[in-house]
Amino acid sequence: MDIQSFIINTNEKSLTINFINGEAACLSFEYLRVFTPELNNSAKQQTLITHKKSVTLSAIENVGKHGYRFIFDDQHSAIYTPEYLTLLIKEHKQRWQHYLVELKASGHSREAMINITQL
Fold first, then answer.
1. Which residues of 81-104 are buried (b: 16+ CB within 10 A; e: fewer)?
2. Whole-prediction pTM value?
3. Residues 57-110: tens digit of each pLDDT
4. Distance (Å, rounded) from C-alpha 1 to C-alpha 17?
5. What is the band of 112 on the pLDDT scale with cuts at 50, 70, 90?
6. How far is CA 7 from the centre of its chain?
7. Domains of the chain
8. Closest Cα to residue 34, out of 76, 67, 6?
């Protein structure tokens, strides 16, 4: 689907994606960061990304035909294609539940390792 616009909501820690066909979807920054395309689309062993509950999406840059570079405040950035974003939207419930099960089994947490306060 073709993307019309993004709305970054730092208070809710979410990204709203508006599509040209009038549909819209809202994804949390944490979900987008946990399912970063570089790690989750590769044939390599998937790495469980933890401690990202407080992560913030700082900026989005258009990278032409490749998609959009999402820049997070934990110094991570990745290119999300419209197709990958659509997949994340369609599979949100299953992916998130699977992530929570894996996270619990690993003994790790969603919470940040250190508390950071923005002034």
1. eeebbbbbbeebeebbeebeeebe
2. 0.87
3. 999 999 988 999 999 999 999 999 999 999 999 999 999 999 999 999 998 889
4. 11
5. confident
6. 14
7. 3-106 (3.30.2020.30)
8. 76
Task: Tell me if 18 sits within 8 A of 24, measured CB to CB.
Answer: yes
Amino acid at 6: F
Which one, of 100, 90, 73, lies nearest residue 13 by Cα? Answer: 73
Alpha-carbon gap, residue 25 to 5, rounded angstroms: 11
Cα 36 from Cα 31, distance rounded (Å): 9
Cα 116 from Cα 105, distance rounded (Å): 26
